[in-house]
Specification:
Length: about 475
């Protein structure tokens, strides 16, 4: 097997753009617009805890992500893509099965009432097994974190390449690609990177330095927190460190569940109350450096795909399991259904696309529900019946669809949401304030809960009814709203 000896190093890049360029070509331009092969190779790259805005191609000037940007420039970027549940295990279950986590009674990572038998019954209908049954060779590398089996990936239909989630994963995936032959069976490779998830340890270590988790803080976080050499702290905060977001303060009329959730993990409550402006800004700085780090790892995989000669027959999909609050609403971590945690990257690129560099701001995508039918569509595989998601392949071809859903549903540990792209209505199980409504067109930062606004009463009533009907039809137990 060809051995890639590329040494992975991480350097803090200044936002002036002084960084080494990474040149990535996803495929030969001669294939642009040609007919797709019947059974293309598929490469799915997933990061952990990356918000949709954490790419420089979105206009974020505080980081550089040339590998992710290259995928976007050679394909399509969906800006209205969301996780089914912005926490690792529930989201990853959805991504592999195309189903809501509530279907197996899972609402957070450690759901004690999970229906294990139902999970096991879905193995044969998961992406890996569907593709194996269709003649694909299926491989998985990196973080697994799926229900029941934890880090075991074989039941889900994949051959494991490596459990490493960092630099070695990039190298192993690159070796795999460089040693494939064009005459080999088509492959599905799922590369699951850990970062920028290391940002989680920042608050944990600050608030609970003697905890076991804090003592296991990855060294990558310390590297991400380093200031650039040769500049003063004053200059750093004035020129290079990202400012606080405009929606840094807690929402007016915040859901009661927010307070409950952050107190369940007390370090979240501690930093919300005690972090200074500099602490929050350094948190944002580190989050962006960790994102750049994983972008460099993705670049190694993409460069190997190019060198392997397989790029002309390979579809690339990039996404994340959920985002991070990134100092919005004085929050870090995820779980709560604010945009920063729920809105995730979703990019698709393949060399025979007629149009490239498309930005789709219109169509709502649920990566957990739509990934499976999309992959099946690309590969000519019949997806399981009864799924709520849809293939986005027609959208990559710029086809005009009149029946695309005008709303999607999201779940979290304490409630459920309907999202129309503009309006968000959430119904929670607990607390005095159990309903939230925002108009993202008028309040992009979700700074005020408008649930009692007379101006929006008809819209709120309609969305409430839609959500309750959906939960009822799916057999999902919920606590009805209190009549007003």
């Amino acid at each position: 097997m060809t051995n890639i000896t590329t040494k992975m190093t991480h350097k803090t890049h200044l936002t002036s753009g002084l960084m080494l360029p990474i040149l990535i070509g996803l495929g030969s331009c001669i294939n642009s617009g040609n007919k797709a092969p019947e059974h293309p190779n598929i490469l799915v790259i997933m990061t952990d805890q990356q918000s949709a805005s954490m790419m420089s191609c979105t206009g974020n000037k505080w980081l550089k992500t040339p590998a992710m940007d290259a995928i976007a420039s050679e394909g399509i970027r969906f800006t209205c893509a969301y996780a089914t549940n912005p926490v690792c295990v529930p989201s990853r279950f959805s991504l592999q099965t195309g189903r809501f986590p509530s279907e197996i009674r899972m609402r957070e990572n450690s759901s004690p009432g999970i229906d294990k038998a139902k999970v096991q019954s879905l193995y044969s209908k998961s992406i890996g097994n569907l593709f194996q049954q269709a003649g694909y060779q299926t491989y998985y590398g990196g973080k697994v974190h799926l229900p029941v089996n934890g880090s075991r990936i074989k039941p889900w239909g994949y051959e494991p390449l490596t459990l490493d989630e960092r630099d070695s994963l990039a190298i192993v995936c690159a070796d795999f690609l460089l040693n494939r032959k064009k005459e080999d069976k088509p492959f599905l490779l799922f590369a699951s990177f850990i970062n920028p998830h290391d940002i989680c340890y920042d608050a944990i270590r600050w608030a609970q330095p003697d905890s076991k988790l804090a003592k296991n803080t990855p060294e990558e976080l310390d590297e991400a927190l380093q200031l650039p050499e040769g500049i003063s702290e004053e200059e750093f905060f004035r020129k290079f460190c990202p400012p606080l977001p405009d929606n840094h303060q807690p929402m007016i009329g915040e859901l009661s569940s927010v307070d409950s959730l952050i107190k369940l993990r007390s370090f979240r409550n501690i930093v919300r109350e005690k972090w200074s402006e500099k602490d929050w800004r350094m948190h944002r700085w580190a989050y962006m450096r960790l994102t750049e780090r994983v972008d460099a790892q993705i670049a190694i995989v993409m460069e190997a795909l190019k060198k392997s000669g397989l790029s002309e027959n390979t579809i690339v999909i990039f996404t994340s399991d959920h985002g991070d609050h990134d100092a919005s609403h004085k929050l870090e971590h995820k779980t709560i259904l604010y945009e920063e945690a729920a809105n995730i990257p979703f990019l698709i690129s393949y060399p025979w696309m007629k149009q490239k560099g498309i930005v789709d701001n219109e169509h709502l995508v649920s990566n957990g529900l739509d990934l499976l039918p999309t992959l099946c569509d690309f590969a000519g595989i019949q997806p399981p019946t009864g799924l709520m998601g849809r293939s986005v392949v027609p959208l990559t071809k710029q086809e005009k669809l009149t029946d695309w859903p005008n709303h999607i549903y999201l779940e979290t540990e304490t409630g459920y949401m309907i999202h129309t792209g503009r309006y968000k209505y959430e119904l929670d199980d607990i607390g005095k304030i159990r309903e939230m409504f925002v108009d993202l067109k008028m309040d992009k930062g979700e700074t005020k809960n408008l649930i009692d606004s007379p101006e929006y009463k008809n819209t709120i009533d309609s969305l409430r009814s839609e959500l309750i009907t959906s939960l009822t039809n799916r057999g999902i137990p919920f606590n009805p709203p209190v009549a007003k």
